[in-house]
Amino acid sequence: MTKSELVARLAERNPHLYHKDVERIVSTIFEEITAALAEGGRVELRGFGAFSVKERDARTGRNPRTGEPVHVEAKRVPFFKTGKQLRERLNPGIARDS
Asked: Assign residue 72 a region: left if phi > 0, alpha if psi is -120 to 50, beta otherwise?
């Protein structure tokens, strides 16, 4: 599902809202999640999952074409961990300890 498909579906389910307002709401939510992660924070949506930032150390990688060693700088990457309810919905009937 793309962002525009999400906006269309939400607008369809909420006919009392204007399409442009739904689009603004969705964009604002994504912007707030992005801003929190950029500040090194964590965003937890209970039952859905948690967005966080992980630090990756600098390392030596390889150029896939030539096989030559290449230095890869340290970086921060977004990480998403699914919530319990989402996991259960995706895997019905599977008991899980955690």
From this structure: beta
